[in-house]
Amino acid sequence: MISTKKTDLLKRTDIFASLDSKELEGLAHLAVERRFAPDEFIFWEGQPAHWFYIVQEGQVKVSKYSPSGREFIVAFFTPGEMFGEVAVFQGKPYPASACAVGETRVVGIRRDDFLSFLATHPSVSLKIIHVLGERLRSAHTRLRDLAAERAEGRLANILLMLASKLGPTLPFTRQELADMTGLTPETTIRVMSRFRDRKIVRSGRGKTTILDEAALRRIGEGLPLN
Amino acid sequence: MISTKKTDLLKRTDIFASLDSKELEGLAHLAVERRFAPDEFIFWEGQPAHWFYIVQEGQVKVSKYSPSGREFIVAFFTPGEMFGEVAVFQGKPYPASACAVGETRVVGIRRDDFLSFLATHPSVSLKIIHVLGERLRSAHTRLRDLAAERAEGRLANILLMLASKLGPTLPFTRQELADMTGLTPETTIRVMSRFRDRKIVRSGRGKTTILDEAALRRIGEGLPLN
DNA sequence: CGCCTATTTGAAAACCGTCAAAGTATGTGG
DNA sequence: CCACATACTTTGACGGTTTTCAAATAGGCG
User: Fold this and answer.
1) B154 and A CB contact within 8 Å
2) Same-fold call for A4-143 versus A150-220
3) For residue B3, which of B19, B18, B24 has the smallest C-alpha distance?
4) Cβ of B147 and A74 within 8 Å?
5) Residue ranges per structural domain of chain B
6) Per-residue pLDDT of chain B (226 residues; tens, 9 = 90+)
């Protein structure tokens, strides 16, 4: 075993989990570990995409910035998830920036290595299609949300989406919630305060706990805050 | 040749274009032609997804509806493009509804047939990854747009996106533009009127012609309507 | 010509963003 | 252990944008 830790990580990903240990070994040889300090960027939107990554430890935030400099958070990724893969497949620049949240380790795989690996492992392609499909579905749901719901509904839906992935206690600041919903921090705070007064959430500094998921679901469906 | 028309269509799609004529023949056997009248639905959000489709003639509008009944248009598809594929891969219900715009013909392929075809044609998987990646990229760009831009910017960006696909003359009503941007028809009309006064677009009933693409691009970047 | 639908316009109200200022947790260095 | 600096959070007032509601106009098709 040359790199137990790397094969262990690969084994925990959706797309590589079904490979046998020999194949995993081969991949692990191609994978390079990298560490990032909090708030350090892994890549920037517009850079040429030679690598794609898998989160090993910590969290990665993928965002797009508007010309005015405002941030919009596209997704958070946790250990075992890949990111930067869309650009790699297309040979185009990264469509968004990736930034480490807290101390973070990732493994990177070179575009060329990965494409040749794919050519000989068709089953992995199917897994990737599955993952991309899931992300597309989520993106479309969020699109409908941003287009149709107002502040309360948007926040409710983002909280639900995050909770379904991370559990009922969410490690985000108001600012980050604002950047995910396209609201300002002030509006986010006001809505969250209403939620708190209604005992729908409990909140502290950089942390939110969901108490009444059913209520959030009603609000997310466009029903009034009753 | 059993079905020249169907193989011709398949030949024009991104994902099947590189197959040889024997493979195309095989696929064409699996493909079923269907016709739809204007405003007839091909499938509804939530239905089990046994088929995916390719547009042969006409246009298909894919939308999601908010609980209040408001429509949000996720995408328009033109001949040669596929839709409904995400649900098929995942064995989950369709995540959106598809509706014929004008007299429309499509070909449908059964989920099971397609999955077994894929298993024996890995190169098609790669094409699909490519298409899904492109759609994901577009969805994320639109997300940032809805979150960060106001009415003028949103409309400008949607017009640009449509023009890059359909050319400078766009066959959409104000209502449809509103459903793509998440604005109300009234706001859409007011903004479009400003655009018309500035000679940025020319517009008629159910039709819009872009005159000054550069201006739209400036507005879409968040710059004022100068 | 008449109907249906798309477009247009107006006025009022709701919502959210902006700006400004103050309060409060967390961590750091002395 | 305390003082202080640094975020994050909170609150208020104001203004602008967009929605809402209502009504009128105009284009296309039978």
Assistant:
1) no
2) no
3) B24
4) no
5) 4-129, 144-220
6) 556 788 999 999 999 999 999 999 999 999 999 999 999 999 999 999 999 999 999 999 999 999 888 999 999 999 999 999 999 999 999 999 999 998 999 999 999 999 999 999 999 999 999 999 999 999 999 999 999 999 999 999 999 999 999 999 999 999 999 999 999 999 999 999 999 999 999 998 999 999 999 999 999 987 765 5
One CATH from 3.90.960.10, 1.10.3720.10, 1.10.10.10, 3.40.50.970 for A150-220: 1.10.10.10
Domain B4-129 has CATH 2.60.120.10: yes
| β-pair partners for B104 | B36
Question: DSSP state, A80?
Answer: T
C10 C1': nearest CA residue: B186
Q: What is the CATH number that goes with domain A4-143? A: 2.60.120.10
Q: Work out the minimum CA distance from B192 to partner chain A, whole angstroms.
A: 19
CA dihedral A117, A122, A127, A133 (to 10 degrees): 110
**Residue A138 beta carbon within 7 A of nucleic strand D:** no
Facing B148 at nearest CB: one of A70, A134, A141: A70
Which ranges constitute the DSSP H helices of chain A? 4-11, 21-30, 85-90, 111-120, 122-148, 151-166, 174-181, 185-197, 213-220
- B35 Cβ under 8 Å from any chain A Cβ: no
CB contact under 8 A, A68 and B222: yes
Interface test with B, best of A144, A184, A223 (most B CBs within 10 A): A144
Of A72, A136, A221, the CB nearest to B139: A136
B224 has a chain A CB within 8 A of its CB: no
CATH class of this structure's domain B144-220: mainly alpha
Task: Give the list of residues 6+ apart from residue B213 with CB closer than 8 angstroms, or none.
Answer: B160, B163, B168
